[in-house]
Design brief:
- The protein has about 290 residues and is α/β, with parallel strands linked by helices.
- Helices cover about 35% and strands about 30% of the residues.
- The chain contains ten helices and 14 strands.
- The strands form three sheets. It has a six-stranded mixed β-sheet, with helices on both faces.
- Strand 12 (about 240-245) and strand 13 form a beta hairpin.
- Helix 4 (about 110-120) packs antiparallel against helix 5.
- The protein starts with a strand and ends with a helix.
Length: about 290
């Protein structure tokens, strides 16, 4: 296993929030979805990886380097796309690039021009006139042009219309599959991750409540619907969450194999979306 990012026992305490013992490992050539509701701890974790805040406990290793001792070397290998942006609004893309390119010894002008053309970005346009989707693509161009190995994206598709979101998703697929890069994507738009994620980490109230390979998580779980009369009290233990009425029940199970043995054949089992799984687990934590 070629580990690109490893987080061990990360903790950060604020007066009204605590990030509690976060552990995470990312393998080369994968896209990991980091999901949870707003305020769950996604941005705090990312800012800890980037050295923007100092954790109270824990260790972060990026590309085999200690995040504290090798901060500058690590930053040269990262491609970062933050939700709040980090560009000078009154500069054109060309002038912004001229400021950024000298910071990287690995900068590749040829690659930069290829990606600018590929993503149809106008170099003479001022950043303040760019759409949000174009800003996201420009940030990805910069990362690709200096040969970043790890891409860290904080809500990259938030606020984008569906067509632009799909275009950005296709770009991320290509980065991982063609260029063998590694992506950590923090988002609350879980439908995007249904399409592209290899691994998932669910965070809620500062804790990782579920993690693993996306397909394995979805295969392990099921949305179950049926007659409430068939639900004996012991069967409810096989559900992460359950909603019952006189007309029927619906719930999420993490043990569908057992339920299929004990519930009637007319019970319905559906493949859950990532949003379904997150919603049920979040409710169980409340």
């Amino acid at each position: 296993m070629n580990v690109v990012l490893e987080i061990n026992n990360l903790c950060k305490n604020y007066h009204d929030f605590s990030l509690q013992h976060i552990n995470m490992t990312l393998e080369k050539g994968t896209l990991t979805g980091f999901i949870g509701p707003n305020g769950a701890g996604k941005t705090t974790t990312i800012k800890s990886i980037l050295g923007m805040i100092k954790p109270d406990e824990g260790k972060i290793t990026v590309l085999g380097l200690d995040s504290v001792r090798s901060d500058l070397e690590i930053k040269s290998k990262l491609g970062v796309v933050l939700d709040d942006g980090h560009f000078y609004e009154d500069l054109t893309l060309r002038k912004m690039t001229r400021l950024i390119a000298p910071m990287y010894s690995t900068w590749d002008d040829h690659a930069y021009q290829i990606y600018m053309n590929k993503f149809d970005l106008p170099e003479d346009q001022k950043i303040k006139h760019l759409s949000r989707g174009m800003r996201m693509k420009y940030a990805l161009v910069l990362a690709l042009s200096h040969g970043a190995d790890l891409f860290i994206l904080d809500e990259p598709t938030s606020g984008l219309d569906p067509l632009v979101r799909n275009e950005l998703i296709d770009i991320l697929k290509e980065i991982v599959l063609t260029d063998n890069k590694t992506v950590l994507m923090s988002t609350h738009i879980t439908s995007d991750l249904d399409k592209i994620a290899d691994y998932l980490f669910f965070i809620f109230n500062g804790k990782i409540i579920l993690h693993g390979q996306k397909d394995e998580i979805k295969d392990q779980h099921a949305i179950v619907k049926g007659d409430p009369a068939a639900l004996l009290p012991d069967y409810e233990n096989y559900f992460v969450g359950l909603n019952k009425s006189t007309y029927g029940f619906e719930g999420l199970t993490d043990n569908k194999a057992t339920l299929k043995k004990v519930l009637p054949n007319k019970t319905v089992y559906e493949v859950p979306s990532i949003e379904d799984i997150l919603s049920y687990y979040a409710r169980r934590q409340q």
